[in-house]
Amino acid sequence: MKNKLIVIITMLFLSISVMANKTLVRKYQITYNKSDFSIEQIEGITHISAKDVLWTYLNGDPKEPALPFLSVNILIGKNELFEDVNYTAIEENLLSNVIISPNQAEIPTDRMPDKYSLSEIRYKKDTYPSRQVIYSGTFYCHGYQYVSLLLCPFRYDNSKKRLYIGSSFSINLSVTREKPIQSSNTTARKSTMDDVRRLVINSDELEALYPKSKSVNNNPVRSGSVSYSYAIVTNNALKSTFQKLANWKTYKGVRATVLTVEYINTHYTGNTLQQKIKKALKSLYENNLDFKYALLGGDVDIVPTEKCFIKY
Description:
6 helices
């Protein structure tokens, strides 16, 4: 009887744990074409870069080939935690008998990049990269939570000197849900929704993951769980341009937001627009522990300066 009681209690505990922290696996398909990339051969060395998308090289180790990694952002629920990611790829042989250019080591801005000859390029591993999909971090955009991945569409077989492109990637993203998804009567601004949709690959799941399009806060300064490190102050005409910079900063792990002078002028108090801008930045500093950087996006006709008299 005692053994049966222990088993029953154990099963009950396991059931409660599964209900409280449910693991979900979501599948996504990503495709690439050769035309998405620029592939050049200079003096027998093949150079690869991406067109029209945010990309980066994973590291600056000149002992490894320079293969571009692209940012892939996947929206997850507010009460969900990233657990794991795995993938499968369908490959096709893109080029044979090629030597991929090495990563460029970090150099001072007053120096030209190093040039390598074919005889100098010697890679040790048989295959690069060791993993084509890498977890970069979990971030927020206007209160919406997303997982950021770095994906390399290429695989270089160093032993056979062949370059492969992954024409199709199947991504399995595992998340743990701490609480059921809850709806809200709060309606997000259209601009906020558009920012999120542009940022993630699964924008079709936005309403399901955030019922009734809940936004933590319409104020980009006082944004609850969102912590910004970088702020850009500009006007409405230039907002879309600087939003690209803010998105890139966020991709790189520096959470950024864009504040327009028009928004600041109507949401902050002060005798002049300059004073209102000062209050907006002060609010960011006081409400975001990680806030470090502010960029004034425009000349004095866009972001006005505050003039004052000084005594000599």
